[in-house]
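Figure caption, in words: inputs first, then the predicted bound structure.
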Amino acid sequence: MKIAFFNTKQYDQEYFDRANQNAAQQIRYFSSHLNLESTSLITDEKVVCAFINDNLNAEVLHKLKSKGIELIALRSAGFNHVDVACAKQLSLPVVRVPAYSPFAVAEHAVGLLLCLNRGIHRAHNRIREGDFSLRNLMGFDIHGKTVGIIGTGKIGQAFANIMLGFGCKVIAYDVVHNEQCIKSGVTYVSLDNLLSHADVISLHCPLTPETYHLINQETLAKMRDGVTIINTSRGKLVDTKAIINSLKNGKVGLLGLDVYEEEEALFFEDFSKKGIQDDVLARLTTFPNVIITSHQGFFTQEAMLNIAQTTLSNINQFEQNGSIQNGVI
Ligand code: NAI
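Bound structure (NAI present):
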């Protein structure tokens, strides 16, 4: 099938070309994000391949349908950037990659935690300037701490297992209890109980109307003083202005973010010459106890290969018999 591949980076092309070695699919790569304007790039393609910072709102979906698009293949697990109700109404199937490497994201969350706690980012910069002092670098043992996980699906479970290996007490909140987590030693508690007992809170639930701004002024107030928060899930789970206030008054001791509320316009691009226009993000970057990465939790060789293989397999299935493999709910 002919595929219009939006929002392409060099690494996407490398991994998709590798997975499409037999050239079963004809892919045209575009660097533009998918939006109303860029739909004009589509000529006779039947499939659109999009990423998390592409905009698949009702207007774009109607346009895609009118251009003869038959399938939307997301090369991501999350689909909160798609108006799913509208896609259903238009009978426009949307497929995704539900799991490509939960370990990639869980390990990145652990990386943020370790780096923040021991000030590794600060020590690295300091030593390059010839400063070998230990000033302000004291961390805490992660062993023995209480780690609270919100969302114990594939990634949350992988994160829980690593934290159990560190010798932590792991408590969790989820609307569904994961039996494997319970067997491994995770204890499910209410959200309020988790907020008030955890030394470290890591977010691994999806963005839904229920989880939007789950971390807000009220939930922050219930947390332990100096709590560490790690968010590798979705930016809009956290009310950024509320968390900035909590960083200022010390309620939040350490903050690791791989995602940000308004990341769509920024992440994956290079603004090092222009500077960033987003004053809220700019303020966040001034805190020494905050680390921000640019939505790179998924970015490992294994995950990229799985993403490419599953996306192409989803498209092959559709082409062969019209069946929907890995359709969004
Ligand atoms: P999953 O679907 O396996 O697990 C999500 C869990 O969240 C489920 O157990 C579900 O019951 C729970 N959940 C749903 N609503 C909830 C609520 N209101 N409160 C508490 N828990 C709730 O998903 P997976 O694969 O573990 O991914 C989790 C999230 O990680 C994704 O939704 C996505 O936002 C994010 N992600 C981030 C990546 C990155 O590169 N930083 C890459 C891939 C995913």
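The CA atoms of residues 58 and 86 lie 6 Å apart.
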